[in-house]
Specification:
heterotrimer, A alpha+beta (561), B alpha/beta (369), C alpha/beta (332), A: 561 residues, alpha+beta, OB fold (Dihydrolipoamide Acetyltransferase, E2P), 5 domains, C: 332 residues, alpha/beta, Rossmann fold, 2 domains, five-stranded mixed beta sheet, 14 helices, 14 strands, 36% helix
């Protein structure tokens, strides 16, 4: 018994629609006889069989679209009656076998449509679609087949036929042997297939219509905030349940907008390479090239020692494959500009921190502060304020640190030339970690005299500009006391290294609910751990303790902030 | 779907009926209106064995291609596959006139030419499969069959693109005083290409030993001759370049052979290029499958009634030269040969992808950028 | 004219050097023949083959009809049959009429036949502008040909290369296209015997330098050398690279030069968009990115069909001053 299969009628043909059988079961056929009419994307073609014998069972009914290679019918030998002649109306094969015989056919979708529960909630349509694709992948059918752009352009016949609720012109039937679908009525929604713009309106809207690209699952509040702050919801990864975009996601995106990369030094590739080799920090150079780009000559001028004279052609420069021979020079050959930028900053931080740890005798103090009152105050403020003016805990912590510095001026200033010089105001250095790695600590000037909303605004602005590489020169220096708030990084306690020539560094951890005794009762309170790293040359522990006590007092009496 | 039918006269589409007529040779290459059909010049071997060879070769081509249809439908063969079914008498008849040292330049519908020229079915089938044992190492495919050892210079898939190199092959023979002929096949569609006319002029001007074989199957892909040529008398047009040109019944393999032998003989005696217009018909689509919107079913059936294989078979039966058991034996032999070719192709190795850049230049290092 | 190779000692022209190369080829190998429009009685449109018909006869110096496709294709066929044809196409603009043969046959036959059919063919043609010949005789399309795998593209720019590139081109088993810039034919000078066998794989340093690489080929070489002189006067040491072979490109030579100078100007008489200059620039960016101390500069023709009027044609073409200015942009 031979199989007559859906033939490939062109190099680009992947499936065809059986339009008509030209023979019936029991009919004798000869090799080369046209036995069926098949419609492809290009044309309608009478297809021939390659066997001589008697037509056996027809496996696919007219109207069905099946992939190339799908058996369409069986052809038996002529002589003996090995063929099981099929009489019209005789019971066909069992459904169980149909899937096998039918092979990877579009009926995979029909099978899915038997599970309407998957399609119930419009809001979940996207998910349902996804799981549908999973099944599809399990099927032999190619995933996303129906969504291929080429097919999408055409009002695909198969699609049209499968359009829910509309009696198809040429119904796609399950393979023969399958009885009428036992599942839903033909009008049941088709959960998987994306709706195709159809010439005739589909009476039942497909739930899949709700499945739009991107994360549009966002609450109205998140939407409003997004709209106001110009954040594109489509591009936002959601952190909420089921990938929902939350308000926090939007606010975070709004705060980080425009904040991209650390300052980009304009330099030629060769200058960058040279700078890395000679240990010159590009940031310190003034470029003389096109558009003030730093060029090799600028790097050489800045290079310490004998390398400052024009570098002779390196020995490998004359070789045929300079790029290949660059590798053994100890420097990763593929280091790109951004990596070089990051490593330059890394070296700057390394130098500074080494100096700090070598020269400054640090002492450390720590206290845990009940910030329930401060948080209450913040929440109350936020309830009254538009989104853009809401406070974050950092604002209160900074304000407390600034006011405490005013109270304990011995920690607010510089240790230079073996003596302490008090700062000319409280200018908090705000440690800002950069996305590409590294750290800057620009100054938030006169932080002690800013009201909370102003401080908050100034903080947001400073952080955004630090991350965008748009700090002003005056902000790069002049900080009198640095605060590092790693609360948003999830840590509880920070023991920092002092930024010389300052004499102290204040650290705040995360605001975290902790059990604690309040008025003789065990309560759960929001708390924060405040730490102080101070220069023992400038102050002693008592001064530091005074400072932390002041911070505690201020946070517990937020009306003072 | 209603499609505009080509407007052609019956005369254009009717098969030539002049298979057995004794042709007259166009004098001095100025064949009057292309009608005359050449008759026995140097007559073919009257031996019925020769006719049996003709029959077997045509049948081999036919069965080979029928198997290709099957393999294509089963996606074993890909690409464009242009079938020769119906036109076998042309390839088989013309190649009878060629000596082994003569050269053949062909078109993209060249399975018949390749097999008739003696390229083994194994090598052609393996090429269809894209395997290293193919006659082009799997680099060519159906449209680009080559065999340098048999001076088979290939399937050229640019209509008329093979004509200029064919002139060059002939030129080289002439310059070196080698008495060889180059035979170039092309279709009626080539008449619309400048390369045909440039080459016809050049070949006639330089009196090159070139046999121009126009397989006029009446359609340039889907466009009927009368819809693409203002003057459909192709032999007359070829004659206008100053070369001998005849029109021949392309469904009668013996008539084709006779004409080709006379033409080749003329070429070998130094009378310059000869042109044969062979009226023939492809029974199948342009490439594998097409909806045949551009020709009438009746027309196809009419031409099928002059199937070149059946024509010769019946003639031999009438003469008592072919018994049913002979026919059965031929069929068996061919089937075995083709099945062997298919099996061998299935088993044949695929070229490793690492060899991708081979054969771009002759440099052993492979392609250079 | 008519001087023998050994007698060329003193002064010769590019045209004479090319003719001498043809004469040598025709003399030394009877498989070689020259074919093209007016190569015989006329003596070649540019006079290159003057006198060869008389010396070698009409079989080997063949005038053809104006059928570029037919005679280029015939060259391919003759090459397949074991001859060594030299086909002359009058100008690169006319070669478009034979593009089917060059691309679909000459460049692909070896591959399509699975390595059975090499095509040892040489096609010579003139290229380039500068003689007020307008928009159908003046273009530089060699970059198009350099796009095609399977052929070798040469651009002899010096007397030495004009004289000595043909022999290795004829020895190459694959198709070789030789582009002769029409502006070079009258260049004269002393032809020195080649120091080493002339090869077809390497670019040449026509002038060494340390500050900037000027990369060019063909008809732009004299202008580029003149630019290097001007730059030297301004204290800039320019290295001039003559690509010589446009396919395959000698990447190693270009990269080595850029590694020395860290700056590059590519000079190409073709239109800038999609040009060979674009290819060279891209390769420098790919292979020598970390050597670059300035953006790569290109000096190409203006994107306009070549105008007839003298001042417009001059403005459209790369000129020495343009090259000097580009070099200054990169160095200053």
């Amino acid at each position: 018994m031979a199989e007559f299969t859906m033939p490939s009628l062109g190099a680009d043909m992947e499936e065809g629609t059986l339009l008509e059988w030209l023979v019936g079961p029991g009919d004798p056929v000869h090799k080369g006889d046209p036995v069926a009419v098949v419609e492809t994307a290009k044309s309608t073609i009478e297809v021939e069989c390659f066997e001589t014998g008697v037509m056996g069972r027809l496996l696919v009914d007219p109207g069905a679209t099946v992939p190339v290679g799908t058996p369409l019918a069986l052809i038996g030998p002529t002589a003996d009656g090995a063929v099981e002649p099929e009489k019209p109306g005789s019971p066909r094969r069992k459904p169980g076998k149909a899937a096998k015989a039918g092979g990877p056919t579009k009926t995979g979708k029909a099978a899915r449509s038997e599970k309407p529960e998957k399609a119930v909630k419009p809001g979940k349509a996207a998910k349902a679609g996804k799981s549908g694709e999973g099944e599809k992948a399990g099927n032999a059918e190619k995933p996303g087949e129906a969504e291929k752009p080429g097919e999408a352009e055409k009002p695909g016949k198969a699609r049209k036929a499968e359009k829910p609720g509309k009696p198809p012109r040429r119904p796609t039937r399950p393979p023969p042997g399958r009885e009428e679908p036992t599942g839903p009525a033909p009008s049941s929604p088709e959960p998987v297939q994306a709706p195709t713009p159809a010439p005739t309106p589909a009476p039942v809207p497909a739930p899949a219509a709700a499945a739009r690209p991107g994360h549009l699952e966002a609450g109205p509040l998140a939407r409003r905030i997004a709209e106001r702050s110009g954040v594109d919801l489509e591009t936002l990864p959601g952190s909420g349940p089921g990938g929902r975009v939350t308000r926090t996601d939007v606010e975070r995106a709004a705060a980080g907008r425009g904040a991209a990369r650390p300052p980009r030094v304009r330099a030629t590739p060769f200058a960058r390479r040279l700078a890395a080799e000679l240990g010159v920090d590009l940031v310190t150079l003034t470029g003389t090239g096109k558009g003030s780009a730093v060029r090799a000559a600028d790097v050489r001028r800045a290079a310490p020692g004998p390398a400052a004279e024009p570098a002779p052609a390196r020995p490998e420069a004359a070789s045929a494959r300079p790029s290949a021979e660059r590798v053994p020079s100890g420097r990763p050959a593929a280091a790109g500009p951004s990596e070089e930028r990051a490593s330059a900053m890394r070296r700057a931080i390394a130098g500074l921190m080494t100096r700090a740890n070598r020269d400054i005798p640090h002492y450390y103090l720590s206290t845990t502060v009940d910030v329930a009152a401060a948080m209450d105050r913040m929440h109350e403020h936020n309830r009254r304020s538009p989104v853009g003016e809401r406070l974050l805990p950092a604002a209160l912590l900074l304000k407390a640190a600034a006011l405490a510095a005013r109270e304990v001026p011995e920690l607010n200033g510089f240790w230079t030339d073996d003596r302490f010089t008090a700062g000319d105001g409280v200018h908090l250095g705000i440690a800002v970690s950069l996305r590409g790695g590294g750290l800057v600590a620009p100054a938030l000037r006169d932080a002690d005299s800013l009201a909370l909303p102003q401080l908050m605004a100034a903080l947001k602005d400073l952080v955004a500009r630090a991350r965008a590489g748009r700090l002003r020169g005056s902000e790069m220096s002049g900080a009198t006391l640095t605060v590092t708030d790693l609360g948003d990084q999830g840590v509880e306690t920070v023991f920092g290294v002092i930024h010389p020539p300052q004499v102290a560094l204040v650290g705040f951890g995360r605001v975290v609910d902790r059990p604690c005794a309040v008025d003789g009762l065990l309560g759960v309170r929001p708390t924060v751990t405040a730490t102080l790293a101070a220069d023992h040359r400038a102050t002693d522990g008592a001064v530091g303790a005074r400072y932390l006590t002041a911070v505690t007092r201020l946070l517990q009496n937020p009306e003072e902030l | 779907m209603s499609v505009a039918r080509p407007t052609r006269t019956r005369k254009d589409s009717a098969p030539a009926k002049s298979g057995k007529k004794t042709p007259e040779r166009g004098a001095g290459g100025r064949a009057p209106a292309g009608r005359p059909v050449p008759g026995p010049g140097s007559a073919p071997d009257p031996d019925p064995g020769h006719r049996r060879d003709l029959l077997e070769t045509m049948l081999r081509i036919r069965r080979f291609e029928e198997r290709c249809v099957e393999l294509y439908s089963a996606t074993k063969i890909r690409g464009f596959v242009h079938l020769y079914i119906g036109e076998e008498a042309v390839a088989v008849g013309v190649t009878q006139a060629l000596a082994p040292e003569d050269a053949v330049v062909s078109t993209y519908r060249e399975h018949g030419h390749a097999l008739a020229r003696g390229i083994p079915a194994d090598a052609v089938m393996a090429e269809m499969y894209g395997r290293t044992t193919g006659c082009s190492g799997g680099r060519g495919g159906s449209m680009h069959l080559f065999d340098a050892s048999r001076r088979f210079y290939g399937g050229n898939a640019i209509v008329a693109g093979g004509l200029p190199p064919a002139a060059g092959l002939a030129l080289a023979d002439r310059m070196r005083g080698q008495n060889r002929v180059t035979c170039c096949f092309f279709g009626d569609g080539a008449f619309a290409e400048g390369e045909f006319h440039e080459t016809a002029n050049l070949a006639a001007l330089w009196r090159l030993p070139l046999l121009l074989v126009c397989e006029n199957n009446l359609y340039a892909m889907g466009t009927a001759l009368a819809r693409h040529e203002a003057q459909t008398d192709l032999a007359m047009r070829a004659a206008s370049y100053g070369m001998v040109a005849w029109t021949v019944d392309g469904m009668d393999v013996e008539a084709v052979e006779q004409a080709a032998r006379r033409a080749v003989e003329g070429i070998r005696t130094g009378t310059g290029p000869h042109f044969l217009e062979l009226r023939t018909y492809r029974f199948r689509a342009h490439s594998m499958y097409d909806p045949d919107r551009y020709r009438e079913k009746q027309e196809i059936e009419k031409w099928k009634s002059r199937d070149p294989i059946e024509l010769l078979r019946d003639r031999m039966r009438e003469n008592g030269e072919l018994r049913d058991k002979d026919m059965a034996r031929i069929e068996r032999r061919i089937t075995a040969e083709i099945e062997h070719a298919v099996e061998a192709a299935e088993q044949a190795p695929r070229e490793p992808v690492g060899d991708l850049l081979r054969h771009v230049t002759s440099s052993p290092a492979g392609a250079v950028s | 004219m008519g001087a023998d190779g050994e007698d060329l000692a003193a002064r010769t022209t590019y045209r004479e050097a090319m003719r001498e190369a043809l004469r040598e080829a025709l003399r030394s190998d009877d498989r070689v023949f020259l074919m093209g429009e007016d190569v015989g009685r006329y003596g070649g449109c540019f006079g290159v083959s003057l006198g060869l018909l008389e010396e070698f006869g009409p079989e080997r110096v063949r005038d053809t009809p104006l059928s570029e496709s037919a005679f280029v294709g015939a060259g391919i066929g003759a090459a397949l049959a074991g001859m060594r044809p030299v086909v002359e196409i009058m100008t690169v603009n006319f070669s478009l009429l034979a593009l089917d043969q060059i691309l679909n046959n000459a460049a692909t036959l070896l591959h399509m036949s699975g390595g059975q059919l090499p095509v040892p063919l040489v096609i010579r043609m003139t290229t380039g502008a500068g003689r007020q010949l307008g928009a159908q005789h003046s273009h530089s399309l060699e970059g198009w040909y350099a796009h095609i795998p399977g052929i070798r593209v040469l651009a002899p720019a010096t007397l030495e290369d004009a004289r000595h590139m043909l022999a290795p081109a004829l020895a190459d088993p694959d198709p070789v296209l030789v582009f002769e810039h029409a502006g070079l034919y009258n260049v004269s000078g002393e032809l020195l015997p080649p120091a080493a066998p002339v090869d077809l794989d390497h670019a040449a340093i026509r002038r060494p330098g340390t500050d900037i690489s000027l990369i060019t080929y063909g008809g732009s070489l004299p202008k580029t050398l003149a630019a290097a002189d001007e730059l030297a006067a301004a204290g800039i040491s320019a290295e001039v690279i003559d690509l010589r072979t446009l396919r395959p490109l000698d990447d190693a030579a270009v990269n080595a030069s850029v590694a020395r100078t860290h700056r590059a100007v590519v000079v190409d008489e073709a239109w800038r968009t999609g040009s060979l200059a674009a290819e060279v620039s891209a390769r420098i960016a790919e292979d020598s990115f970390y050597e670059l101390d300035a953006p790569v500069e290109r000096v190409c023709s203006a994107e306009v069909p070549m105008p007839y009027a003298r001042q417009l044609e001059e403005a459209a073409l790369p000129q020495t001053a343009d090259i000097v200015a580009a070099a200054h942009r990169a160095v200053d």
